[in-house]
Write a structure and sequence with these properties.
This protein has 154 residues and is mostly beta strands. It is built from two helices and six strands.
Length: 154
């Protein structure tokens, strides 16, 4: 039997970090995942709001590095459960227990002092063009080989 879930969405609020009596960290959060189709007369996309839980170090990292609105990817499994509320009414739960959480946006994306994924240490006109330098070095050190089209297997 297979029970695997992969989701990409945005946090609806900051993750809730707690610790069990055995001092194991656990974070709960809700992920808003857009549906792939539009509905209704206004043509807006709807979203599903999926309860998720993550444990241990990943829980601590999640609470430390992401906040409401952050785009993340999760992989895990669906887990269902039930409990009786204070009035004795049975409540059913469904959540994704995350095995892996990926942060899909750079840290401090909203900070104006950080531009282009970490280029904040250089003025815009003096950032070294690493890609071009590497390409030039490869051209100089790579020998050329003459191959006829008839020699290619495809």
């Amino acid at each position: 039997m297979i029970n695997r879930v992969i989701l990409v969405g945005r946090l609806t609020k900051d993750p809730e970090l707690r610790y069990t009596t055995g001092n194991i960290s656990v974070a709960k959060f809700t992920l808003a995942v857009n549906r792939t189709f539009t509905s209704g007369a206004n043509g807006e996309k709807e979203a599903d709001f999926i309860q998720c839980v993550v444990w241990r170090k990943q829980a601590e990292n999640l609470a430390r590095f992401v906040k409401k609105g952050s785009l993340i990817g999760v992989e895990g499994r669906i887990q269902t459960g039930s409990y009786d509320d204070k009035d004795g009414i049975r409540k059913y739960t469904t959540e994704v227990v995350c095995d892996s959480v990926q942060f899909l946006e750079p840290k401090n994306q909203d900070d104006d002092s950080i531009r282009d994924y970490g280029r904040q240490d250089y003025p815009d006109d003096s950032y070294p063009d690493v890609d071009n330098n590497n390409r030039n070095n490869r051209r100089e050190s790579t020998p050329t080989i003459d191959v006829a089209e008839d020699d290619l297997p495809f």
